[in-house]
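Q: Could you fold this chain for me?
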Amino acid sequence: MKKTGSLIMALGLALSLCACAGGEKDEQTGDAAGDKPYEGTSITVVTCNNAATRMAVEHLDEFEEETGMEVNIEIYEPDDAIQKVAVNAAAGGAGVDVFCYRPIQESLSYEENGWFIPLDDYIADSEGYDYEDFFASAREATTGEDGHIYGIPYLVEGEIIFVNTEIFESLGLEEYPETLEELLEACEKAYDPANNQYGIALRGEGNQAVTQFSGFLYAFGGDFMDYDNMTATMNTPEALAALEYYAELLKFGPEGITSANLTDSQTYFKQGLTLFRIDAYSQNPITVDPEQSLVWDKVDYAMFPAGDNGVTPYNITAWAWAISSNSEHQDAAWEFIEWASGKEQDVLAALDGGFGARTSTWEDEEAMENIPENLAEVVRQTGEVGYDLDRPLCFNAAEVRAIVGEMIDAANSGMRGDELKEFVETKNAEMQALLDTE
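A: Sure. Below is the predicted structure, expressed as structure tokens.
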């Protein structure tokens, strides 16, 4: 931890870490006392609690000693961090230099409002930074509508299959499902409610299920919308087929699965009730925690299965670093991001339980010492082929997501064929009406 600073709590979690400040310097030339290029420069970083942040805090004194920079890191609950950034940016304040953001939720509004700056030139001038080392889906997620790079990803999560090896072996199965058809067949074979055994744990409640449904939607060749034309596309044959498939898969889950949320889905699998669970790989620590899981030593991992459109799991960037357009120390802000998201720091974050976006980290023996080999391989593959969205991306995202959730609920209730198509047509029109306001 930082030793020469002050600790300031914000909402129970915020903290500030400061070093002794020196005189002012010219950030462009790096002129300063001695060889510390940012002597006298002070920046503020607004973020939330995660492995990348914890490692930045733990090693901050080394960074400050090398650069001469004073770094004030404020750590908040996620929603409070976003609120802090929004209030500061809307007021045109220079009080925040580096901030965290969620690309799916905030990218569109931040880009439109001009709240962060393009990082293209910084990346191009950073020798040895190896931007291409970040997962392709993560790079896509942090690239703006105008083609400029606005964020550096530091926390990702993707859709995979968790496998209960005890049930798998008891069924005489030999290979994990590689296609949606094989997944359905395996779940049906495992389904034995008389003995409290089931095929699948998934989020069933419509709104909660949207993110997990996305991989199936992409697998059938569908999407929530045509983003080039901002046209709702949940009424296409591909999307309708995905809705029906998802509902059929849920039939092989425990009783009540159609109303299951994230926690319910976790519980089904952790209690040893289901052969498979499909959700984000970032939930593995809970799944293999002996104090929380009855199957902690009976878990393996498999890639999301292929549909007609190939292997299409989501692999989203949950959090990324950005530089405020109001910052008066943008060069220093990049210096911090370059260090905090570098390969060495990413390995340290992985050792602390983080799920970083660098491919090299998932190939590093030291970083993977606490990660099962098969999980690491699945994460690597998912990061390369995954889609960078797991929900609709638009300004009215919450409302549009809720409408998709209603479609999922309708399919789960038993609607099929023309009845489902008619219902979806109506809801798709509601989606379009929202998109037309953007």
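A (continued): The radius of gyration is 23 Å.
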